[in-house]
Amino acid sequence: MSGIMIIDGKKVDFENQKNILSVIRDSGIDLPTFCYHSELSIYGACRMCSVETSSGNIIATCSEKPKDGMEIYTNSPRIRKYRKMILELLLANHDRDCTVCERTGKCQLQKLAKRYGINKIRFNQLNEENEIDYSSPSIIRNPNKCIKCGDCVMVCEEIQGVGALGFSHRGTEVKIKPAFNKNLNETNCVNCGQCRIVCPTAAITIKNETQKVWDAIYDKNTRVIAQIAPAVRVSLGEEFGMDPGEVTLGKIVAILKKLGVDEVFDTALCADLTVIEESNEFLDRFAKNENLPLFTSCCPAWVKFAENKYPNLVKNISTCKSPQQMFGTVAREAYNKQDKIDGKETFIISIMPCTAKKAEAARPEFSHNNIREVDVVLTTQELAIMIKEIGINFDNTEEEALDMPFGLASGAGIIFGTTGGVTEAVLRRMLKNKFGKDDCEIIYNSVRGLDAVKEATIEVDDKSIRIAVVHGLKNADTLVKLIENGEKHYDLVEVMACKGGCIAGGGQPVPKIITKETRALRAQGLYNIDKTNQIKSSDDNYIIRTIYEDILKDKNHILHVHK
Question: Model-level pTM greater than 0.90?
Fold first, then answer.
């Protein structure tokens, strides 16, 4: 539908925008919202996007379609008073301890209160203080900072299909919480952190573990090493004014060294290791026609989702540890002897885009004799907090190289950070020397991109391998149902819990407006690194051979989870 609207006295063309809000924003007016996200259903709870029509009606623009000839005012005296009243009422029942709040300076409520000049609250605070939920290993839920926008409820249900959060009570008594007032660790929460991404305040935040890292750094008897996940290097810069997809790996290495980390390595190296182990496992199962399709195991939120909802499919999930945990396993093996010689303990930090990685590292199968394979997982956001705390000038930081021996990765390992990357990395190994370069590119392109589900069938040695790539747990849930019903048949299925893959994990920087374009730019950043990487396939990485020969020494089984 197309036409012309009159917005604040000016004619504005529109074409196929799904609501008036989109038309207004496309015209250059930043209309405020709390509860609107273009990828979620329209809830219309906050009313901040309301405008006044020429007939004097006040309408919420997120839920109204544009009409030809429609005349609206975005900043009339009534609307301005209306918005300020909404903000005052929200603040009246809000924990206003902003100076020590995790989101201070980034809180949407705080920003809008400043924008609209709210410097005094006329109403008394009526709500009683609620208990903060620290039970999750990944996120903290503070109901005292909740403004009931419903974003967390919708993303958990509509995008992830989990439904760990919901509305209870009615009217002014409404609350957002897990069913039966349970703690998050008692629910089916998968720790993906997507609720934290859409939360406009500090009602849901990342569990901050930076102090554990500082303690390790300050301990002279501790060797501190860090691994950096692929997705972190194309997103951290956003915290310092850079565009999504800009590669900052060299700066991250230099900054970690300034923080006091002794050695800095690349998680993508162990993504290469995962490719070797997972492709071997797949080929073995495929030859035996056993426990197919093989589901990937890199994403801990997906693994948790399957354990909760489809326990019968656990046998189909790859036994390979994720690259994070493989790194912890290999690093422990590599440093055990040196620790005894030096009289030190090695403390392993993961820098990850994902809140679910915190939960993964804490799982009992990844701890041996009370020593975890990975001691602490810091998200991209937590690393940014540490950088800002000590005052490092990010822009002026000179780049440094990763340390060896765990600092060299193939392009296949790098693209693990985006949806389709795991599958493409496995295909690069399996199809090596079987197709020409152009044919391979066509195959790889079939599993790239941000479509919800991507499918490919590949003929190898007179056998058809059927592949699916899916991201977003609700999409995965739909696909699993089709597989169980016999409507779809695959041999290999890659699942990433977050839309876009790790690049859009729950620990990543939050863009002003969450869009598909941000994900695409981050993904392109990884593909750009791959494009200039001389090593394309995981089995061409000579460090992998060294790990097998000198560190693992026929102990490949420690790279797997034994179910």
Answer: yes
